[in-house]
Design goal:
By secondary structure, the protein is mainly beta. Helices cover 13% and strands 37% of the residues. The chain folds into two domains: 109 residues, Rieske Iron-sulfur Protein (3-layer Sandwich), CATH 2.102.10.10; 172 residues, Alpha-D-Glucose-1,6-Bisphosphate, Chain A, domain 4 (2-Layer Sandwich), CATH 3.30.530. The strands form five sheets. Strands 11-18-17-16-15-14-13 form a seven-stranded antiparallel β-sheet. The protein has a four-stranded antiparallel β-sheet with strand order 5-6-7-8, with no helix packed on it. The longest helix is centred in the last third of the chain and has 18 residues. It is elongated. The two termini are 24 Å apart. The mean pLDDT is 91. The structure holds FE2/S2 (inorganic) cluster (FES).
Length: 307
């Protein structure tokens, strides 16, 4: 797992000053919490004393986190040990007992973590889309993204919309992102209708080549915006992918079917994947993804060398 990647590991509303929150990036467990001024802190979720998860402890009024096992207390910014209950005040805390801190950045309703605490912060992403949720899927991160490219219906549902197998634009690179566009239809009792030429909706997916974070944009045939969403998949322990998402329905949606998207949840991100359908899913759009990623990575390396 590369150190200098910013992963969207939580939604802002998941992190509080009341209770520590546990996530992981690959095999790295992380505890997150807020200090009373709202600042988010992130440390390795493993007490340096006897390895108890710090996420089972509590947040003190000072903003420090206290391990639930023997009460050792750690500063959220540096990870330094700041208190051991019953230790005589003249004794020094051994510096070896330090919890590893991580870089934290919060924007657009997501809390991002970088395993390299000294990495420069990422750019702010604008405003937080109002609808949000979290799903945890028993599928490896790379496979999750490949399935999103090849058949998004395995991973998400958009109210009243059928994803067709037809692409308006093959997976390609645009400004450092992997971008594709899929033809869609309004759901009807007559689906599947393979010979219809009427695909009044399109779904554009723009994906970060490293993290897989994807911006989804659904538009009608007059290019009116219907729905926008961000899916942020993060590789977790044991080949599990944690997906945080945010979405917004466009307030102006011409047509009855588009208006009906506002009845109930417009977007569902699945917790369970149909294994039988996944097994027979042939790679289509995703077969170009690795080549494109290599090209983007090679160009980024060149730019870094010149800089
Ligand atoms: S294991 Fe955390 S204080 Fe002992």
């Amino acid at each position: 797992m590369s150190e200098a990647i910013w992963w969207a590991v939580a939604r802002s509303e998941e992190i509080s000053a009341e209770k520590p929150f546990n996530v992981d990036i690959g095999d790295q467990p992380i505890v997150l919490w807020r200090e009373t001024d709202g600042t988010v802190r992130a440390l390795e979720d493993r007490c340096p004393h006897r390895r108890a998860p710090l996420s089972l402890g509590c947040i003190l009024g000072s903003g420090a986190i206290q391990c639930g096992y023997h009460g050792w207390t750690f500063d959220g910014e540096s990870g330094q040990l700041v208190d051991i209950p019953n230790l005589k005040s003249e004794r020094k805390y051994p510096p070896v007992y330090k919890a590893k801190p991580f870089g934290v950045h919060e924007s657009a309703g997501f809390v991002r973590i970088c395993l390299d605490a000294k990495a420069p912060p990422p750019a702010d992403d604008g405003y937080a889309l109002p609808l949000s949720g979290t799903s945890t899927v028993a599928l490896e991160h790379g496979q999750y993204i490949a399935a999103l490219f090849d058949d998004p219906s395995l991973l998400i549902s958009i109210k009243g919309v059928r994803f067709s197998p037809y692409l308006l634009a093959e997976l390609c690179e645009q400004e450092g992102q992997l971008v594709m566009e899929r033809s869609c239809q309004w759901a009807s009792p007559h689906w599947p209708a393979p010979f219809t030429s009427d695909f009044p909706i399109s779904l554009r997916i723009a994906t970060d080549p490293v993290t897989g974070e994807s911006d989804l944009t659904l538009r009608d045939d007059e290019f009116n915006l219907l729905l926008q969403a961000t899916l942020a998949p993060v590789p977790g322990a044991r080949q599990v992918t944690q997906v945080r998402w945010r979405a917004m329905l466009s307030p102006e949606r011409p047509g009855l079917a588009a208006k009906a998207m506002g009845l109930g949840a417009p977007l569902r991100v699945h917790d369970h994947i149909d294994g039988a359908a996944l097994r027979v899913l042939k790679p289509s759009a995703s077969i170009h993804a690795d080549d494109l990623r290599e090209k983007i990575a090679a160009r980024t390396d060149q730019q870094d060398e010149v800089a």
